Amino acid sequence: MGFLRQVLVIAAKDLRAELRTKEAINASLAFALVILLLFSFAFDPTEETTREISGGLLWIVFAFAGALVLNRSFARELPNDCLDALIAAPISGAALFLGKAMANFLLVLAVELVSLPVFGIFYNVRWTSQFGELMLVLALGTWALTVIGTMFSALTVNIRLREVMLPMLTYPILVPALLGAMQLTTGLVAGQPIGPDTVAWLKMLIGFDVVYTAVSLVLAETVLVG
Amino acid sequence: MREKILYVLGIAAIAILAWNINAIARLPEETEQGVTFKIIFFHVPMWAVAITAACAALLASVGFLVTKNFRFDAAAVAVTEVGLAFTTVGLVTGSIWGREIWGIWWTWDARLTSALVCWLLYAGYLMLRKAIEEPTQRATFAAVFSIFAFLDVPIVVFSIKWWRTQHPAPVFWAGGSFPPDWTKHLLWNMAAMLLLGIVMVAVRLRQEEAQREIDSLRRTAHTL
To answer: How many angstroms separate the CA atoms of B224 and B220, rounded?
Structure first.
């Protein structure tokens, strides 16, 4: 089995398990909607205020809701010693990691794609005018969130306070990625395409993704197999 | 023997500090900021030690992953803890200066924000260590996290720099003017702080070694 096929098998397994139980994605979606609701009390949800802070608001919702999905990624394998079986399987740690990261990416992206129209309706924002570029930023930011989150999900899998530790470790590392994604999203939701003064953020986001994907793939074997 | 060397180094660090603080107190006041400016003699060395500690933590973490020798792990945790202490003092001294000169304790400026993010990262490292019980797993996972954290520092610094900057431009190497005899005192303070940091790391390393001995004795006692 080639590396890519191994990755796809793991990703398909994770997605199948999640779509049958729906335990993480339902919780994550409900959580995203609750935070969206709470934000409407935090400030006056008029069109102008919302437009100014839309990027920050959306990415805080995505990061919080994403943590719920990422928490389950490795914790799901603990009952029945599934994690030991996965590690004993004849695939490399990097393939296992990448497969799980891809499954998480699709799940978090699904939550985001449901949250976006809800945000548009609740806060009366027309967010679709720069749809293509917004989707690009969404994909890059979500990949940063999932590649770091999946790695730290593996690091924290045996810890008692796993649910608390994962976001506490993930968010500080994600600061540059979230900052860039927030800046870009605010502009795009307001209808301004990525211009010469914002393209640096896009480059930084791509750089962040590349660096951490590479480091994670190198260290995945050490973390998973030891 | 080792203990005596530590005592001597510690006393030397304190002696240099005492002599240097006395000398700094006699220096004339800076024209615009007055006596408040002198906090730079402590603020800058704090950050120099903290950055040295961060680099040492990266080297120790990589060393552990390559060799699986627990001495590297002990070094990593000792260096990170001491570095975090210096980072805390660096943040506090900076904050005090900001209150006097800017009139505010804190501002979301590039350097301040990056420093805070680094503080959070290394505090997270120590919390992760506390939470994992199995020693080999703790050492491996902590080392991986330390590498992730160190890689993040330059990205954080540059991204937040684009975001906003208010921190005064560096006085050294960047066109600022700092009298040469003042630089001398600053370098002495830096040496003293570095020495102090080394002593603290050495003490912390001894604790780690003692802890490992206690653990192994306990395990032996269990088997008997």
So the answer is: 6
In a mutational test of the B interface, the residue from A147, A158, A171, A174 whose CB has the highest number of chain B CBs within 10 Å is A158
Looking at the complex, does the CB of residue A202 fall below 8 Å from at least one CB of chain B?
no
Q: Report the alpha-carbon distance of residue B181 to residue B161 in Å, rounded.
A: 32
Q: Which residues of A touch B120 (CB under 8 A)?
A: 172
* Domain boundaries along the sequence of chain A: 3-224
Angle, in degrees to the nearest 10, between helices A162-189 and B135-163: 20
> If chain B, 224 residues long, is cut into consecutive pieces of 10 residues, what is the mean pLDDT of each piece?
84 86 77 73 84 91 92 92 92 86 80 86 92 88 92 80 62 58 81 88 88 85 84
What domain range is B146 assigned to?
A: 40-168+178-208
How far apart, in Å, are the Cα atoms of A189 and each of A36, A141, A145, A205? 16, 15, 20, 18
The reply to whether residue A208 touches residue B136, judged by beta carbons under 8 angstroms, is no
Q: What are B30's strand-pairing partners?
A: B34
ipTM surpasses cut 0.90: no
**Residue B9 neighbours by CB under 8 Å, 6+ apart:** B195, B198, B199, B202
Q: What does the alpha-carbon distance between residue A68 and residue A29 come to, in Å, rounded to a whole number?
A: 9
What is the pTM for the complete model shown?
Answer: 0.85
Would you say residue B161 lies in a domain? yes
Q: Pick from B124, B127, B147: which is nearest to A215 by CB?
A: B147
Q: Does B17 reside within a domain?
A: no
Domain count, chain B: 1
Nearest Cα neighbor of A77 from A20, A164, A157 is: A157
Residue type, B13: A
Is A135 an interface residue toward B (CB < 8 Å)? no
